[in-house]
Write a structure and sequence with these properties.
With 158 residues, this protein is an alpha+beta fold. The chain has one domain (3-157): Nucleoside Triphosphate Pyrophosphohydrolase. Helix content is 23%, strand content 32%. Strands 3-1-5-4 form a four-stranded mixed beta sheet.
């Protein structure tokens, strides 16, 4: 990591694992990285906001999903560091990566409720995938986070 970024803090973030009735996982393809990488909804925690409130807000902002039930807060905090080519660019250069609190939620609605064409769209398309596949489709710098989450989700839903 370049020295000028080494001392940057990690951004406080949340992530939401949304399962449908068949235990498939919601993933979406980012507008700013339209290669074949998919991710689960995630985002930053606003000043003074608690993490669960941030998770519900981010989920709705990115996907329009409101109709969910919290299954479990994942105990582990996950972190990732941005690759060098993104340092100084993402988040206006204020952070070197993210530390995240993740929540597992059950989608109770109908797929027609999901709308990624939001006020500030982040995604090009979305789909439901098998839990096993989340580590096959994620961008490389978030792979360890998704491996950890996959193991945690398996413990909960099995």
């Amino acid at each position: 990591m370049k020295d000028k970024f080494r001392n940057l803090p990690l951004r406080d973030g949340v992530g939401i694992i949304v399962l449908n009735k068949d235990n498939k996982v919601f993933v979406a393809k980012r507008i700013d990285n339209p290669k074949n990488f998919w991710q689960m909804p995630q985002g930053g925690v606003d000043k003074g906001e608690d993490v669960l409130t941030a998770a519900y807000r981010e989920l709705e902002e990115e996907t329009s999903i409101k109709n969910v039930k919290l299954i479990k807060e994942i105990n582990k905090i996950t972190t990732y560091i941005l690759p060098e080519h993104l340092l100084g660019i993402i988040w206006k250069g204020k952070y070197k990566g993210q530390k995240q609190k993740w929540f597992l939620m059950r989608f109770l609605g109908n797929d027609t409720e999901i709308n990624i064409k939001t006020d500030k769209p982040e995604f090009l398309e979305w789909k439901w995938i098998n839990l096993e596949s989340i580590t096959d489709v994620v961008v490389d710098f978030k792979l360890e986070v998704y491996k950890t989450l996959k193991n945690e989700i398996k413990k909960i839903i099995n």
